[in-house]
Amino acid sequence: MYQFLSNGTVTSVKGFKAAGIHCGIKKRKKDLALIYSETSCTAAGTFTLNKVQAAPIQVSKEIIKNKKTVRAVLVNSGNANACTGEQGTKDALAAQEYCAKLLQVTQSEVIVSSTGVIGQAMPMDKMLHGIKMITGRLTDDGGLDAAEAILTTDLVMKSWAVEVSLSSGKVTLGGICKGSGMIMPNMATMLGFITTDAAIEHPLIQELLSEAVNKSFNRISVDGDTSTNDMVTLMANGVSGIQIVKGTSDEALFFEALQALCIEMAKSIVRDGEGASKLVTVHVKNAKSENDACTIAQSIVNSPLVKTAIHGCDANWGRIISAAGKSGAEFNPDLTSIYFDELPILLPNYQAVIDEEKALSILEKDEFTITVDLGDGQCDSTWWTCDFSQAYIKINANYRT
Amino acid sequence: MYQFLSNGTVTSVKGFKAAGIHCGIKKRKKDLALIYSETSCTAAGTFTLNKVQAAPIQVSKEIIKNKKTVRAVLVNSGNANACTGEQGTKDALAAQEYCAKLLQVTQSEVIVSSTGVIGQAMPMDKMLHGIKMITGRLTDDGGLDAAEAILTTDLVMKSWAVEVSLSSGKVTLGGICKGSGMIMPNMATMLGFITTDAAIEHPLIQELLSEAVNKSFNRISVDGDTSTNDMVTLMANGVSGIQIVKGTSDEALFFEALQALCIEMAKSIVRDGEGASKLVTVHVKNAKSENDACTIAQSIVNSPLVKTAIHGCDANWGRIISAAGKSGAEFNPDLTSIYFDELPILLPNYQAVIDEEKALSILEKDEFTITVDLGDGQCDSTWWTCDFSQAYIKINANYRT
Questions:
Q1: Which of B12, B25, B169, B314 could form an S-S bond across to B309 if both were Cys, CB 3.0 to 4.6 Å?
Q2: Rounded to two decimals, what is the model's pTM?
Q3: Annotated catalytic, B69?
């Protein structure tokens, strides 16, 4: 069994230090974060599938691909170092090299990550000066500062830790993330950094992360866009002395905790989506295949018409079933039912049984679940989305990413 | 050569009459349209690919599939007759039957079409009373009334006619359409009804319409959603005495006129998209394959981040290339250039050459073109989109489709 810790963060995990500072990439807010492990870590990562990949993505993917050990993650906000050509790659490597030198680790042991404006050169003087400062400020409780420093248009900090009891003792997992705009499934869809004091070898560490990301970060939607910079990493330093072994009940327990952490992180991103005022869980069940369930849920969570109806507290099941219909997935609309929380809205053969007053009281809540029961199989899929508000338009018409 | 006629409409074409009236499905506005040919027509149609298809779509698809002759199109707005189950089909057939009876034609000669609220039973008493009224009001210049009666959240009427000189004389094409929300490629994406006095046999009539729709109505985006009710039909009554024969230069000239008409209709829908203030042409060129060009253009025209940037007059080429990158199409971002009208914004190897002042003067126009030159092939694709405004959210949070 796992449990969430209060004020949990990446430094709630033994052997990890962190810091978050302002170095001048942004005008005033914190813009540089560093997560550091006192000992060598195995690491896993998932990266954006966008064909246009920021320089730090290219650099960090190589580390993960080659199953290198890792000691630190350096993250800046305010500048994405994306669409910056050869100079961008040089800059990412220079930051990585300098950070490694000051931490006295190998260059390839530093994962690098950036988020912010696309297409502008990194202000390397500020960046290098920042690296010099931040490497001197690592502390055992710096996780929340790091969580703050990776934000862009986010309104709230996103930080968690979870403890799980295994057969030979407890291990801890911590995670920080940022999201806001440009959130859409397929792949990491934002930045997330997870630490654990369990020991996990390759290839298991990557399998665990990929599976957890697939059912959490890859199932959220704010606006259907996918960024050039998205990544989620997991660092395991083994300081707990507990090894996660494939096929054991400990592995299942650890995965359960990792997935719960990832889902909490992902939901926090949706809840804080640009202009969002509601978190809506979309649960598609009794589909013929998991793929059909996924495709239909994805189409619903990405439909602007569904998202604006949710914003307007309109019990518009027509838009929901229409979004399912355009998905291309196999299902029979005649067998389909729709529920808001436990309240039936539509029953098979298009029986609209909607009680407008009760539906409204659910739609007005900050969080609720839309269940689409296809009545035609046994597979299901759960996704998360937010409403589409006028504030989203305002933020994105005026902010240059 | 073709030319557009002033105040052109479906009744600008010889042998067609039309009418548009208010029968009470909507509170005050016109809500019932009828287009009628004095003689028998061949007909073609393209229909929504949504798995959830409104009753009139099912009824009308059968007519086109079986290559039946056609005499009329009956269209109501205000109620989509979608997600209405068996009763919906009965209602669509009853309307078709009654209309055919009053027009003294065969039941299968009446195409039926609906647009409006989903999931509510058709008010058949009003509908049948309306059919009785409208069949008595057909006139030679009723096309504009019909154009008005098919609108829902549209702000302007959409009606055109084009004349084309062929080897043995002139033929005319007329078209009316409605769009607004729920506009997205794949398939007809809205309602469009085209008439012509040319004679065109099967299967050529369907080939010509499908090809023209594919490069017009299927290449527009307002909000990425696809309706349950979309259809475009072409009726050819042959009254001009001029036959379009496959493989002739007349066929090419006729197709050119048909395509120009469809593009004008499609663009008018984007221009009047819910909350839209700009019409933007997205031209992707020098792609390796037409499919790559299409996929990239589609991803750009559907990106909420691109559409909000356009709304905010932000020369945000990063969002454009990022939207291209997430499309999944094959291209090399390093070779890509971006232009606003003739102004270079991005040159290969991520050279941002943007002149902010000149870019702004283009972005502030009502209409402009974004050209994405992939520099890697010879294929191209042209699409149309509008900006995403706060008004879009407002309209769709408060209107129940």
A1: B314
A2: 0.82
A3: no
